Amino acid sequence: MCDACGCDGTSSKVLEINQSLLAANNAMAEKNRIHIESLGAVAINMISSPGSGKTTLLEKTIDVLGEELRIGVIEGDIETERDAERIRAKGVPVVQLTTGGACHLDAALTHRGIHELESQLSGKKLDLLFIENVGNLVCPATFYLGEHRRLVIISVPEGPDKPAKYPRAFIGSHVFIISKTDLMPYFDFSIDYITDDALRLNPELRVMALSSTSGEGFESWISWLRSLCIRTV
Amino acid sequence: MCDACGCDGTSSKVLEINQSLLAANNAMAEKNRIHIESLGAVAINMISSPGSGKTTLLEKTIDVLGEELRIGVIEGDIETERDAERIRAKGVPVVQLTTGGACHLDAALTHRGIHELESQLSGKKLDLLFIENVGNLVCPATFYLGEHRRLVIISVPEGPDKPAKYPRAFIGSHVFIISKTDLMPYFDFSIDYITDDALRLNPELRVMALSSTSGEGFESWISWLRSLCIRTV
Question: Which residue of A154, A200, B32, B175 is surrounded by the most CB atoms within 10 Å?
């Protein structure tokens, strides 16, 4: 390493503080999980880059399952209430969390979101709680929020090389959704290639390819959500 | 705030350490800038989400300007050498930095990249140094690397609501590129809307809409790069 640099990027002091912050986060996340279960819900933490279609996936999911299952949503964004407004228009309980600059949700902020959501329920229960994380394929993968399942989404326009370049989000997830498959004709994108790459990182990953616009592949996603509620609640 | 939570997410101790890390980063970045200028180059820090077309933009830019200007590239990724291999195939000096998990380049890692790049130059000079940051619209916006210009890219498939949701990347940039405009027919995307939103955050932002695939709008980008080299070197 060069003299002018003289730094490895992570000192042991910083590393120690990071570890202690993560431990505190995980302890709070465990409380969140118990809290979520007391509401009757299975929670899904949704992780992806900005613009991969998380909110649209939620809108369409509520269209299909909104009468059959009691759905609640926690929206995480750095700024704006826009995503919560879109979900509110679908008539389900929703809370917008804004991180004010932070690049991910953490368990403490999620905890406040759960309390706010509970106050909207007036004693009623939920079946499914979706937590839409900040649009960021990197940092949210490090923070457990108390969810039962973690979902990573890559949209077709992002390209098929993402699992190898952003491995942590795939290693820590239960489900991998390839979204916007209606755009396949306009991109050089191979579902087999990205699936193989993702499964190499995490052989237990359940992979689904779907389009919220055309509805293609949506049935597998809906069936999985139904099975999740039957099995866990 | 609820009793079980008892935490604002950022304690004053953590804030203090963050500020001291940022100050150390900025001091190193100033050294980088001097180092880059000693190589004769103007440096551009490229920030965007994964899959917005940073590497493709670089490939096409080298195709157009590679004979006229001496171009060097530092590639930042969490994992893999894939982007550097694509640039190397174009015959320009390139260094791949892998952050091993970190969500952004910092000045110390960039510093090592500049040294490695310099060793490839064998005493020759550069006109332009592109630093392709980790695919992440959030965290890289906080870290000055020593660049002369900062570039934020949003591709058409990501949607037009990104400036308001990810303001810091726009506030801190000089140029905003709307990429993949050849896909406009397939998306509900308004260039006027996203431009207005971005200019509200940063009225001095230079906005360019282009497609690396069709070449549409590419001339403005190339002219801007040329003017940058004439003005600064």
Answer: A154
